[in-house]
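Hey,

Quick one before I head out. I ran the complex with zinc ion overnight. Inputs first:
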Amino acid sequence: MTGTSDRGRKPPLVVGVDVGGTKIAAAVVDAAGQMHGRVQVPTDVRGAEATLESIAEAVLRALSAADVARDGVLAAGLGIPGKVDPEAGIGILSVNLGWRDVPVKAFLEARLGLPCALENDVKAATLGEGRFGAGRGMRNFIYLSVGTGIAAGLILDGRLYRGSTGMAGEVGHAIIDPQGPRCKCGARGCLEAVASGPAIAAQATEALRTSRPTLLRDLAAGSDGQVTAEQVFAAARQGDLVAREVVDEAGTYLGLAISQLIMAFDPQRIVLGGGVAQGGDLLLQAIHRELRRQATESFVFREMYKPEAVQLTALGTDVGILGAAALVMPAEGGP
Ligand SMILES: [Zn+2]
């Protein structure tokens, strides 16, 4: 990997850690975005210290799996679900992890003997997409994560935009249907309440109350009358009409939200990631159908909408690890 012109200088390696509510994924990552020694450990959520210990374990296991010594990496970056203070290195609030004001950076640096940096997981994924993925080289770019929750990361004029309270991009709780279902945040008809994974599952489960024939009925019978978003996408791919309607509706709402992001920020590209986006083509088709409808009607939107600018992430589920790595990877061409 090291060219002769580098005079033996080691290529920069860092550890990227994607911290989730149920599992922690980590890998050693090089400057080209290649992962080495990818590992996964369960998240211990019995307390903040237990969770930090499982993060430390993930880092050590990744180093061991990649056969890299601790002093062979520059730092560890962490993507955390929830609100963080990257400067102070504190996890301010995470519902998934049960955290409030946890000194993440101080604990892990003492435990691991490595510089550590943390960022909100969606903001980290945005940086990862910008460094290694579909946002590479773009000064204006939006990453929209659609999974259990929905949030956007904004790269504006070449920098991650945080807003005045650090919460810029919380579009999951922007209201998209004032008459819609109640969201867990308290409001009615948030984007997250109509287009997230749990919302898709809830709408499909609701559709089972009718007498319409659907593959979902058999799937639900095996799991207490509940269906998952993955099952809805699988049934839709098999041509199930009820499942298709549910996917189309979620896609229409996402299309509305994406058109608002396009109007507000005029990005070069919008990349969709997260567990629901992995559901893939049918959802993307429904999103594009809504965007085309608006472009047909509005000459203003027609000016701003380029179909190829809205696409799925090419980094798949690894965007979390790569984003966390991007937090601590030295700038390209830098020392
Ligand atoms: Zn909400």
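Residues 173, 183, 185, 187, 190, 192 surround zinc ion (CB under 6 Å).

Talk tomorrow,
K.
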